[in-house]
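Task: sequence in, structure out. Protein: [Ribosomal protein bS18]-alanine N-acetyltransferase.
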Amino acid sequence: MRLAPLEYEELPRVAELERQLFAGDDPWSESMLRAELDHGNHYVGAHVDDSLVGYAGLAVVGTRRDAEASVHTIGVDPAWQRHGVGRALLGALLAVADEFRAPVYLEVRTDNAAAIGLYRAHGFTTIGLRRGYYQPSGADAFTMARPARVGEEAQ
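Result:
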């Protein structure tokens, strides 16, 4: 598996995966994803051979002294789930946040035990509950956070 910055020409595949993975909610469209790249957010793709099998995005706001980061999305092709793709993608996002010494926030469906376990394994804790966060399903989300990593912690 190879991780690389997400390219504009990969957005149709990302939008296809979004529709597949998040069909019961509001999947991101190709134009929404394009706007994410246009705004300079950090997006990475996971590739096996020539196929995009996963993607992840992170926004960082502020300066290196007062930055905050937010995981916008992580998606993995169902055929590649449980093969370490999501873990690698999250690691790549966290490395960017660590460069900024930024705490990281995210929302995750309360019924997504696999993702919650992954986030906890990477130092996230639950800090809140957002009822009806995902639409149109009305599914609840946990807000999770990981403190900023500095010095040797960030390595």
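Helices lie at 11-21, 30-38, 85-99, 113-121.
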